[in-house]
Amino acid sequence: MQNPKNLQIDSDRLWDSLMEMAKIGPGVAGGNNRQALTDADGEARELFQTWCLDAGMTMGVDTMGNMFATRQGTDPDALPVYLGSHLDTQPTGGKYDGVLGVLGGLEVIRTLNDLGVKTKHPIVVVNWTNEEGTRFAPAMVSSGVFAGKYDQDWVYDRTDAEGNRFGDELKRIGWVGDEKVGARKMHALFELHIEQGPILEAEGKPIGVVTHGQGLRWIEITVTGKESHTGSTPMEMRKNAGRGLALITELVHDIAMKHQPNAVGAIGQIDVYPNSRNIIPGKVVFTVDMRSHKIDILNSMVKELLSEAESLCREIGVGFASEIVGQFDPPAFDLDCLDAIRKAADDLGYAHMDIVSGAGHDACWINDIAPTAMIMCPCVGGLSHNEAEEISKEWAGAGTDVLMHAALRMAQIVEE
Predict the structure, then answer these.
(1) What is the residue-averaged pLDDT of the chain?
(2) What is the pTM of this model?
(3) Secondary element (H or E) of residue 272
(4) What is the largest CA-CA distance in the chain?
(5) Which of 10, 315, 370, 374, CA to CA, is 20 to 30 A from 333?
């Protein structure tokens, strides 16, 4: 066998796989709309399974629909090394968010097969169900059930905007497996992902070594006023729920700016009732997304938001209610896994830098139960969750090369 440091994946094959998968659930502007548990999600799963079986892997599926494709190792008692991410997308998502991590893992297996490389530990490529959380909130529910963060029955009862239950839709598309969720044990897990931010591209570094993830709080806020005619209601007599939204929007921005760097906050989902041109809103329901990689800062931001937002609403005569509908604390990834990534990048000659992930990922949950780390590659302009999301073949190849070499350090090559 050639020197392990010289092993590289087939970048053309990886790219072709990414483009083939992108044909499933196409968006209207060049990206993808392959939301969790839709027919398109089911079709993507079928294609992924076909490719895995063609690569000589066995497929297991748990009761949350998480898919586990296994390449056996030489030691039947050795715990597997896991690689993967997710295949579901945002309604106007790109072709690479999540998908690169799954198909990058598959390309690692294909390359090892081509070169006849055997490992002591099995290697498993995983597709986690409903990472995005766009159809069924919150995000990362299936890896969350796997890690013991959520109860499966609670997740099964989550509904989408049309009232469809998660459990019913998972059954409808035919991906309810028979494995107990969380029964699998892991030697390590690596997740390859696009950065979803501009830092790596700006710094000219093809590899990001993700040392921490940002903690997240999704706070759903309901501001209640009184519907009335926009033309005939005197200004001083209005109970305008929309004004409460406006004031809280500025508050969220101000709080995030006070906790720089790496703290962020925004309002991304808004429902206005009755949403008519000539009716003052009587109710506005919206979700605040706050994140920091430091737990004390994150908790301080949320505390300030809830206190100040309620006061602002009281001052203008509207009601205020809040509920945390999604949360996870900021993870610090495993030092040995991070070391494996850095050494892999050095061996391959790829420039790299430490980075904090600005988004939530399945690896953030798995980090609580197994040694875990993430690898990131740049994306053009830092744009993600957008159909214009773009990466280069070279970035995808570099990230997957590092993924393979980091995995081999943990899975241990067996010399013939």
Answers:
(1) 96
(2) 0.84
(3) strand 264-273
(4) 85
(5) 10
